[in-house]
């Protein structure tokens, strides 16, 4: 049976792609951010995941505002990146696993999640840059299953619903008929707002409380409505929903092996956590 070996949650910001392209990992602006991934590299060498279930939000590359599924799952044999207009290089294609994707889809639909299934799917910076942070040589040693949660166009799924999605993903993986070692990777947040009167908004106190809650009280953020989350974390900070689903997939108890928090990366308070489930 397949096994979830850990969860990693991280911010995703297009500027990271530019920093990678220019080799700025040691630059004083970037070093505190990139250094946060060194313990993750060491952990990945030991943990050797076979498959990554990658929870993220598409920002207009695969889905545009005319068609916006609440939850969608990739079922392709390969996923490609494309130019989003940020001026950053695209990354090599990712290998999918359609058989596992369909097992996940069947479980989730069986648990009454109404999904959009994507046999073709382009993956944007929220997918590619966290992968490049985990595996800087971009020679991806894993198969991937993309899971998209709409955090772009109102109405968004509630925090409670995203928690339940994560729980269902955890149950689905436990039933997979393979021996795969599965990493859940959730990308987005933490607090940031790119537009409107509050552009540049950051809430460090909330972010740190939220990161603490991932271990001590993991359903803490499910008390908030979408509007409250936007007030607390910013219009794009609501991407933290991906962290909640990731955490839920790990089960009742989890330990944090590593965390990093650094302000700012571009307009974003960047957060990083490495979590392991406790049986
Ligand atoms: C930024 C952050 C994001 O999450 C994103 O998707 C795009 C841009 C930023 O801080 O610049
Ligand atoms: Fe984003």
From TrEMBL:
CDD domains assigned: PCA_45_Doxase_B_like_1 (cd07949)
Record keywords, A-Z: Dioxygenase, Oxidoreductase
Record-linked Pfam families: LigB (PF02900)
GO-annotated molecular function: dioxygenase activity
Keyword flag Oxidoreductase: yes
InterPro entries, alphabetized: Xdiol_dOase_suB (IPR004183)
Domain Extradiol ring-cleavage dioxygenase class III enzyme subunit B: 8-267
Entry superkingdom: Bacteria
Name assigned to this protein: Class III extradiol dioxygenase family protein
